[in-house]
Amino acid sequence: MPAVPHPIPYQGSKRLLAPLILGHFPTRVGTLYEPFAGSAAITLAAAGLGLATRFRIGDSLAPLADIWTRILADPKRLADEYESLWRAQQADPRAFYDDVRRAFNEAGGSARLLYLLARCVKNAVRFSHAGDFNQSPDNRRLGRSPTRMRTNILGAHELLRGRAQASAGDYAEAIRHATPDDLVYMDPPYQGTSGSNDQRYHQSFDRPRFVADLEGLLDRGVPFLVSLDGRTGAKTYGPALPAHLDLTRVELHAGRSSQATLSGRASETYESLYLSPALATAHTSLPRSIREASPDTRRAR
Ligand SMILES: C[S@@+](CC[C@H](N)C(=O)[O-])C[C@H]1O[C@@H](n2cnc3c(N)ncnc32)[C@H](O)[C@@H]1O
Questions:
Q1: Per-residue pLDDT tens for 217-258?
Q2: Among 28, 48, 247, 301, which one is most buried in terms of CB atoms within 10 A?
Q3: Are strands 164-168 and 54-59 parallel, antiparallel or unpaired?
Q4: Pocket of ligand 1 (CB under 6 A)
């Protein structure tokens, strides 16, 4: 797998699983849609391997989608703004983080969000019920250096230049124009934990609506892949997608659970990847050397 830039530090990023997920891509993809983009790990990996002609990045968290818009349109300014914030924190990093978080909650700002993501605990967004970003800083580190951030921002820009668009909004709107020549990759907020009390994301996830939207994609003949929670050892997270959709579920080996390792139990974690019917029989487009270098994948029903 070639080295791929990764400008947005984001908990739940599919960066490490990308080779396994890309292994299920069809041979030709017109536009790759990633409507729950976050750090857009699959878009970046697919672009790095030339697996799609065009890319559509979407996320309902508007300032996050705006980071992508700026990476595509004006990357140097975003890198400059990140650098200014990063340097300004040196005198009192803790107080500065709180100031930036307050300013972000009052007025938004994509560079502020990028700084908060780079500095916060586990690079994980957390929101209060009122919709305020409330994640704490990781006080052991100052966040990704401006030099490294700039390299990744400019690298992502180069990779996607002239062939990608980003937009803020709901996934259903983002994929409305997808056709059978395209591919939709979806990584919605986790089923095992997302609900009215979940603070992981800025909005909760409506599962019946999602299932109805998958039915819509099937009716339109649009190929898709869906990542969902899987299991650690025998413990499964979140319900499976309904059988009537006739999707094929593949388990992707995501590594060893740190929780289980701490408690002395060696449990492996698997994530689920659901393939729409056309993909379950399609030939992969990924070069054999990359597929064979990838860790374990297994098929399950
Ligand atoms: C599990 S994360 C995706 C992580 C991504 N695969 C990556 O590699 O970074 C889910 C993302 O979906 C976004 N999201 C939540 N509800 C959404 C909705 N209704 N429409 C679009 N995006 C949504 C969240 O803001 C979050 O960034």
A1: 999 999 999 999 888 877 888 888 999 999 999 999 988 766
A2: 247
A3: parallel
A4: 10, 12-14, 35-36, 38-39, 41, 59-61, 64, 170-171, 187, 189, 201-203
